[in-house]
Write a structure and sequence with these properties.
mainly alpha; two-stranded antiparallel sheet; single chain; Arc Repressor Mutant, subunit A; 2 domains
């Protein structure tokens, strides 16, 4: 059996809501389906992920590790869907503003004027100020460069 995103979503929902019943409501499935999905995930991974009592559900040591990775994987899957459906990707570039010294304020003003929809943390970067220039090359993901044709 393969690992499925719905299994990871189920684990996250159980931990976030605190009960199988509330997780079922959040996921729009039955409580029995949540229980079966979690059992299938535990079977695939070969470890118990949650301590269950009649009053609480808490992650095991392995469950804490799996939960952290599940959140990352689900976020990445959401990003993949967003990128594939919109054609836009997010590029974050760190830059030491002090590297352009006295030109920092002017660069920030020009950036905001030319890129009103872009946050300083995202998008492509341009910089051409006082004989200094920096360029960032954006590599197109392979799946976007070679779209599937019908």
């Amino acid at each position: 059996m393969d690992l499925e995103l719905r299994q990871l979503r189920c684990l996250v929902a159980i931990v976030d809501t605190g009960t199988f019943t509330d997780a079922a409501i959040e996921l729009g499935v039955s409580q029995a389906a949540v229980s079966r999905t979690l059992s299938a995930l535990e079977h695939v991974l070969g470890v118990r992920l949650l301590h269950r009592t009649s009053r609480s559900v808490t992650p095991t040591t392995a469950g804490v590790q799996v939960l952290a990775r599940a959140r990352q994987l689900l976020a990445e899957a959401d990003n993949l869907v967003r990128e594939a459906t919109t054609g836009h990707t997010r590029l974050r570039i760190g830059h030491a503003w002090s590297a352009i010294g006295r030109h920092t304020a002017e660069f920030q003003r020009r950036w905001a004027a030319r890129q009103p929809a872009a946050s300083p943390k995202a998008c492509a970067i341009w910089l051409s100020s006082a004989r200094r220039s920096t360029a960032a090359a954006i590599r197109t993901p392979q799946w976007a460069a070679n779209p599937v044709t019908a």
